[in-house]
Amino acid sequence: MKSNFIRPERLIVNRRRSKLKESPAVSRMKIRARTVKTRSPSRLALLAVCGIIVVLVWIVFGQTLAHDFVNYDDKTYVYGNSLVDAGLSWHGLTQAFVDTQTGNWHPFTIISHMIDCQLFDLKAGGHHFTNVLLHTIAAVLLFFFFRNATGSGRTSSIWSSAFVTALFAIHPLHVESVAWIAERKDVLSALFFFLTLITYVRYTRARSLGHYLTMSILFVFGLMSKPMLVTTPVILLLLDYWPLQRMPDSKSFWQLIVEKLPLLMLSAASSINTFVLQERSTGSIAQLPFGWRLQNALVSYVTYIWQTIWPADLAVFYPHPENHLALWQVASSAAFLLAITLFVFLFRRTRPYLFVGWLWYLVMLLPVIGIVEVGLQGHADRYTYLPAVGLYLAVTWPIADTATASILRRKIFVASAILVVLLLSACAWKQTTYWRDSETLWKHTLAVTKENDVAHANFGMLLMDRGELDNALSHFQTALDVRSASAHAHYDLSFALIHGDIGNVLARKGRLDEAIGHLRQAIEFQPNYADAHYNLATALFRKGQLDDAIGEYRTTLSIHPNDAGTHANLGNVLVQKGHLREAMQHYENALQLEPDSVLSLNNLAWTLSTTPDDALRNGARAVELAEKANRLSGENNPVFTRTLAAAYAEAGQFEDAIKTARRASEQANAQGVRDLALQIQEDVDLYRRRTPLRDPNLRNER
């Protein structure tokens, strides 16, 4: 008993002695030492996590640097977009903010493509590199966001954040967003979205106008990359609930709503702008009946969850089920969604991450779930890119909380997490291989989907570009048969595209009457379908129906006034009609839009050099244009070289004309074009007599 009283006294005395002897400096040194000991592993862990995430991303997606463009939207956004493929310029930067070719307003996305064209030209590998780089940065930012928001000093928070980030970085559902150049808007908007979240966390811990403005500007940048981020203010409210814990009562809830009002106004403006642009777009589509859209939306929510768990048979396009969904599918999906929502609501206080993660998923998907349609698809992998983070959150944090109860559970959790990440990485790597090129993409899509008219049509376009006209026609006809199963106005655009494609193939096969019939049908379905008007004009021109061709080209220009090719072709038809002055004006318009168009350069130079109308000839201008055309064509085209000789003769430079004409004749002979070579020899005889060439076909009848 006695010793039991002595020991506490000794402890107390020792404690007092230590306090008396220990100086403040020593105390600070001990604190500093403890801080170093706890921080060092944390920094190493952060570096390790970031390094692993970066390595995983590049193992999975690095292969895309050897991939090509695909013929599905890449042309619209990059290699067929004259604004983009011209690279960076002041004109291009200003036009990016008013351009509507893509049917959306995302100027930052357009500018990012311009930068790629400036740096890499049209080498697809460079464009893929930028996508993978942006995705890598977005993944690292996501990790730091969760780490900062959920507790930077907690080890469990770091590893939970790491697992969520790994799922985001390499899930097969996200391959579409990264491996598809046209989906630059996904990876770019993700970067600004996560920066917005990080800045918001900083704002909540050190509230200032500067932090709020920075966060708002980043949010605007995100909206200018992809309007899908309109739900961001709601996500910030969810973060206020957890993990930021800024919502202790109903009064604080309304205060936080007021705090988000400027952001909500930005979201509303972006939504209205997007809706108006899509309604005015020449490719806009009619909405399916609301009941069909609602049913598909309910089933799609569950489909995305299943694809997250079991990412098999993924495709670039899934046909809309229309009204063919079974009642049990719709009812069970609605019941499942309602049950999960009630469950997370009941556990919102004890398991707030379930509530936040589930609502993150539901809310972020809402703009693209199909209730308001912006495309022909039933659902799309790319739409899960950011919403799926909510699912990862809702699954990871409860498991991590359970795992902290024992060492064995932690080991099981870590082993399971590593296994899941490795398996998903392998699946994502395989899925990425299907994006190698258009042929691989569409063959895979046709293999894993049924009744897919879009896949057949796009594969047919690829075959048509290769010159495999019969195979292309077969796929186009299959697409038309599939689409003919529904006559709803929603599919008018599809019918127009398919009829237009069939018309193109038939025209290339020389079956002009059939081609004209299909092109007219395309226009019936979509009166503002500029490509159909253009191709119809070309077919009519080939048949010699010049007046009808002129009318169709003029209609094309009324839809797309800045189409250089249409201006050039209209100029060609007007030359045939004898309307030289108007034809020359269209050639000039074409060159203003595309200064390096060699055909427009050559045709205008030939007209300026050889027309019998004295009032229209201009030798000096013709020489300038013809020299540029020859330079751009590599100076080995006998037609362009002949034009340059004619321009020299009109300018009075007959020695240059003779020398250039002889070179043109040699080129023609070398290329086996004997008739042209003989014609050029006659030109040489004229130039020797110091007589310029006159083309009797270029008479101006106006």
List the helices and strands and how they pair.
Blueprint: H1 2-21, H2 24-61, H3 74-79, H4 82-85, H5 90-96, H6 107-120, H7 124-150, H8 155-170, H9 175-179, H10 184-205, H11 209-223, H12 232-241, H13 250-259, H14 261-280, H15 290-309, H16 327-346, H17 352-365, H18 388-403, H19 407-433, H20 438-448, H21 453-466, H22 469-483, H23 492-508, H24 512-525, H25 530-542, H26 546-559, H27 564-577, H28 580-593, H29 598-610, H30 619-632, H31 638-650, H32 654-670, H33 674-688
Helix pairs in contact: 2-7, 2-8, 2-19, 6-7, 6-10, 7-8, 7-10, 8-18, 8-19, 10-11, 11-14, 12-17, 15-16, 16-17, 17-18, 18-19, 20-21, 21-22, 21-23, 22-23, 23-24, 23-25, 24-25, 25-26, 26-27, 27-28, 28-29, 29-30, 29-31, 30-31, 31-32, 31-33, 32-33
Give a description of the structure.
The protein is mainly α. It folds into 4 domains: 2-37; 38-433, no CATH class; 451-548, Tetratricopeptide repeat domain (Serine Threonine Protein Phosphatase 5, Tetratricopeptide repeat, Alpha Horseshoe), CATH 1.25.40; 562-702, Tetratricopeptide repeat domain (Serine Threonine Protein Phosphatase 5, Tetratricopeptide repeat), CATH 1.25.40.10. It is 73% helix and 0% strand. It has 33 helices and no strands. The N and C termini lie far apart (127 Å).
